[in-house]
Amino acid sequence: MTIRSLGVRRAALLASSAAMVCLSAGCGSGDDTASAPRTESGTTSPSDGTSSAPSGVPTDAVSNSLTPSAPQSPAGGTRCHTSELSASVGRNNPGAGQENFPVVLTNESSRTCTLYGYPGTAFVDASGKQLGPDPKRSSAEPETVKLAPGQSAWAGLSFANPEVSGAGTATPAALVVTPPDEEDPLKVAWKSGEVPVSGNESSVRLIPFSPGTGA
């Protein structure tokens, strides 16, 4: 073998060795387009339909901070159901031209349950037709009222005395009371005379539930 042949073979072996070293060390060409795709931290999979969130922050925490949700009972899972309650209307406590009645719900069940917010109320005639406009709720902050078996909570119902306000009146047969977050109502016979049903002073107002009977 000639000296020239030995030189060519040696150069080929050196080139092959250099290529092997480059492969094992991950030599780059300066072009990143051939790299594997990178998954950005916090990116949500398109299949779940939710928006992405910064790394380490739950997606629902971000959405809740941007979109206020409607107020809900903080103890919704333990709320009192209509079938567990009885309803009554307490004695009138008039004052300053106002008639003020406590609407009372009592826990008749064997478990402790909760009420939060306002009752649904409506005066109705003997046929069940509503008399007057829907009641207006006060701006008072509701509280969760825990009712052990046999305990009661009351919500205030008030309206201007029709003899003072001059509003049109009717005498209801009953007051229909629906517990908070329930659909089935309770009916209480109304024995307190005329109520305003028309005119500028016909509004009935409600305050949220508090512990006790309001007596």
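(the above was protein one; protein two follows)
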Amino acid sequence: MSRRPRKDVPAQGAGRPTVSVCRGCCCGTEKIPGVDHAAQLARLRSGLEGAATVRAVECLDACEQGNVIVVQPSAEGRRAGGRPVWLGLVNDEHAEQDIVTWAAAGGPGLADAPDILDLYVFKPSRRVSAGLDG
């Protein structure tokens, strides 16, 4: 073990929630018809600019729930008990706006999600969620 003092450098966006938008093998493709996937990502980024980190990620391996979005708590939200919330079948602008409203208010641990988002919440397998829950 090193005797040098540890420098805690917060990760980019550590003070803000992170919204991970699946854009892998099914989500974000023509496999989910009737959705302008590029516009969806652009609306999330625009709506959350300065309030949350929005990132497109590779396949989250929950294809049956596509389009999948995971709202991860900020460091403060995690300390308050917030955990990543997996949302599936996010294929309409109303759900996107509810996600924007919630994440902009602080996200998991700091703000209550709009009740309607309960319809989108799902629990992925432990194997699938391990990459984002860490």
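Reviewer note on protein two: The chain has four helices and four strands.
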